[in-house]
Amino acid sequence: MSVLKEFTKGLWKELPPFRLVLGLCPTLAVTNSAENGLGMGAAVVFVLTLSNMIISMVRHIIPAKVRIACFIVIAASLVVAVELLMQAYAYPLYQRLGIFVPLIVVNCIILGRAEAFAAKNGVAASAADGLGMGLGFTMSLTFLGSIREILGNGTWFGMAVMPEGYEPLRIMVQAPGAFICLGLILAGMNMLAFRQARRKGEQAEALARQQQGCGACGGCAACGAGARDAQAQ
Predict the structure, then answer these.
(1) Structural domain of residue 203, as residue ranges?
(2) Which of 45, 132, 148, 185 would bridge with 10, disulfide CB 3.0–4.6 Å?
């Protein structure tokens, strides 16, 4: 159950770009299309999952003073492997992503999960954490890239999805469009979180009143108001 919890937290509760606000550099830079977002996310999944597993395996033999350097070396080795794989099997995508593929090594999600989780937990939990965070990051980039591509080009994964007379909003596939879309998504996430928190608070308050017998004595403000309403009727 613990492994499942570590996996699922990255899919919504701790969604990296939208909840933790991590990894914004590639989130803003490469998401002018859904394909770019999916490709970058897949590369991060590979590096994050394997780096978490390797760091968890060797965490007891890494000196504390050089742990960050060791984490970077492990991540860099995996990034080189990703680069070679992309050059061999997805070279057009590799060219579009450009410098942001090698920059995965300094992505704050990679180092953050290594320091905060993999260096302190077992291999299974670390793998679940890395996979969940990576998939959450991939979904976020693909979602953002889809919005920008649909509005900015009228296509989705290169296929036309808008009516023939649609006039694309070119700003959406440019740099300002990334900030506009990200800001709107963050605002929506914050609004949803606020409503959920308020709903939980109201439910907890109602439960507390029921446990205290509220509604029977007429002593509190809520009961007094209820009694006055009853008298008025």
Answers:
(1) 191-232
(2) 132
